[in-house]
Design brief:
The strands form two sheets. The protein has a seven-stranded mixed beta sheet, sandwiched between helices. A two-stranded antiparallel sheet has the order 1-2. It starts with a strand and ends with a strand. It contains six helices and nine strands. Helices cover about 30% and strands about 25% of the residues. The protein has one domain: 3-Layer(aba) Sandwich (Rossmann fold), CATH 3.40.50. It is globular and about 40 Å long. Strand 4, helix 3 and strand 5 form a beta-alpha-beta unit. With about 190 residues, the chain is an alpha/beta fold. InterPro entries: RNA_MeTrfase_RsmD, SAM-dependent_MTases_sf. GO terms for molecular function: methyltransferase activity. This is RNA methyltransferase, RsmD family. It comes from Leptospira noguchii.
């Protein structure tokens, strides 16, 4: 079992074990990609475009929860995780119950509930890491979710991890080994 570590913040160095593989979905976010996401978020903070202590970090397809834990460690007001797999969502509930009421874990299908979010923070960052098998048949649905999130007034940025470069107009893409990070900052 692989060990994932928090990179910085009040829980720097904390380790979490990867959850059991669910139907072969084991594409955990590489450390360099995670660092890039949070470096970009840090840049938004420095530019005065984001106040983490008043913002929510939302992780769709949360898997191991490492992105959410990194967000908690860095001081986001609220961290919201969505994971449909039973065993993984139960593991996430146990892990995040230690961090208080500002962490919420939902066992819901992102494709059905992305437009029904109840997150009152003044600004939101979204991270999507759908199972890589979804990119064959659900790439357009993932784009639809991203576009919807970006249409919301409170969304500051959307980050999507994928095995392919989707080539979406209006988004920037960077490659990290076998992984791509596609994002748009408003």
């Amino acid at each position: 079992m692989k060990i994932l570590k928090v990179q910085t913040g009040k829980f720097k160095g904390k380790s979490i074990e990867t959850p059991p593989s669910v139907a072969g979905n084991t594409n955990f976010t590489p450390a360099i990609l995670k660092k890039s996401v949070f470096d970009m978020i840090g840049s938004l903070v420095l530019k005065g475009r984001l106040i983490q202590e008043e913002s929510a970090f939302v992780d769709f397809f949360a898997g191991s929860g490492q992105m959410g834990l990194e967000a908690v460690s860095r001081g986001f007001a609220r961290v919201v995780l969505y994971e449909l797999a039973w065993e993984r969502s139960d593991n996430l509930r146990k892990l995040f119950s230690k961090f208080g009421d500002n962490c919420q874990v939902y066992r819901k299908d992102v494709f059905r509930f992305y437009d029904k979010l109840d997150i009152p923070e003044i600004s939101r960052i979204f991270f999507l890491d759908p199972p890589y098998s979804f990119w064959d048949k659900k790439a357009e649905k993932i784009r639809t979710i991203s576009d919807f999130l970006l249409s919301e007034e409170t969304t500051v940025a959307v980050f999507i991890q994928s095995p392919v470069n989707p080539g979406w107009p209006g988004f920037e893409t960077r490659k990290f080994g076998k992984n791509f990070l596609t994002f748009r900052v408003k």
